[in-house]
Amino acid sequence: MELNLLEKTEIHIQPVKLDDANLGEIARVTAAVLGLQPDRVQVIDVREDSIALDILQQNIRAEQVFGKGRELLAELTKVSGFGIFPDTRIDSSGILGYIELDPGRAGEVLKNAGKMSQEIRSRIARRAIVFPSGAEVQSGLIEDTNTPYLLEELRREGFKAVRGEILPDDLTVTTARLNSAVDEGYGLIVTTGGVGAEDKDFNVEALSKVASKVWTPYIIRFTRGQGRHIKDGVRIGVGQIGLTTIVNLPGPHEEVQTAFPIMRSFIRGEIDAENLADQLAQVLKNRWQEKFDMMHNRHAGGH
Questions:
Q1: Which 3-state string (H, E, C) describes 209-278?
Q2: Whole-prediction pTM value?
């Protein structure tokens, strides 16, 4: 039975003892045990007592993984400079976690693998997390009205929705938190704020680093370098990685309210992710135009 790893392709082995071990040989042995081509496994991290490997493909047969942990450790001990301990284990999230399955139970579990895979997909699809962002929210200067609104709307749509911590105006931290939310199995991740053209806005950039498919249409364009604008416009973001969709919404509450009916259409399967991005940008662009027209008319009426 072929299974999709759902972007969860890393395995971690710890504790281990390394002494001038050849990383290429460790990767080759791992690939051989898992029945993969030698170039499909790569060592991605080495610590004092642990090593992490990445499987460089998305689909794998269950038989290649289930119950293979003991065999893999036994083969790796044959690599010069690679040692294990009685409590050495192999950790992984998602399907690869079944590598530590008792070989005696592997056959039984394989019979139910298809059902388990579907259950995992269904569970992830209905988990959502909402992240507010920005120093002004973090410091309590403004009330976060977006998160309670979005949580209520998402729960009405059947999600188990939770509030994430406030994302700082920091690209590295925001990227790490989005990656963690993907790893934690949230099917929908929503951020609010942080999509502007200033030097403190990083949410769209973080999305682009995390997702494998990304759509970032403009709501409005500016001339880069004028005033506070170090970027050439305001964009929303939609990205997908595995079973997870990430959406970057603006910060103003009325814009989040304007955007949610479009998100509802996506949630209900009426539009795909690319159309979600396009329609979000269009409805928010219209909103900006209405504001501009109102301001223009007000000023014109004053003369």
A1: HHCCEEECCEEEECCCCCCCCCCCEEECEEEEECCEEEEEECCCHHHHHHHHHHHHHHHCCCCCHHHHHH
A2: 0.70
